[in-house]
Amino acid sequence: MSGRDPKTGRFEKGWKGGPGNPHGGRSARFRSMLLSKVTDQHLEEALEALMEQVRQGNISAIRELLDRVIGKSVANDVLERLDDMESKLSTLGNLHNGAPDVDSGKIDAA
Question: What pTM was estimated for this model as a whole?
């Protein structure tokens, strides 16, 4: 008995949930304390310190800056490689006589 609606997968009305995160309340209080102590001036100083490290050529600082500004490179790299592979497959399919055209979506079982 899962307590879920078989059609939608949502929990049924009245279904008691689990205990949740036992450290959630403590983490929330800690985060709240941090946010109450950190001012815009603190953040500006931290950013300036990071930018100084970037200007000095610190690779870790450069990586941190780029990760925060444009996102982790892994996700972008995967998308670029996928586009490249699709392009190569399309070219390969067009080069071979009788081979299916990958872009057409038509594959004849001959």
Answer: 0.48
